[in-house]
Amino acid sequence: MKIEGDDLIFSTGKKVYANRGIVGLGANGDVTEGYDGGVDTILDKCCRRDDPEYVVQADELVELADYMIAEWNGVRALAVSYREVESPVIQRLQNSPLTRWIWRWWRNAETGEIVQVRRWRKLGGAWTEYQ
Fold it and tell me: pTM of the full predicted structure?
């Protein structure tokens, strides 16, 4: 399965419209597309449920789910690698009335390598990032 432009393209060759290639999952389990559309699936109780030309069938739905799980796992891995390293020392410094500058860093969770450093300053009691 792949997403090209506005189409979900399944291994069966079926193309299903998804505005801007956006696919979502509604709170009730409905497959959504774009910002306000829906994708008809075999799980829906719609009038075209038995029409394989228009409705995503069970095998295609599994394919879509596997694709989206892989995409979200990639996002998760990236987010995990950018978790902020907090230490008790940083927290004490932030709460000190004498502290004016703080350097904060993020480490890759797997390698321990520092991937991002930012400098923050205290202005009027609020911390703001300093460029």
Answer: 0.61
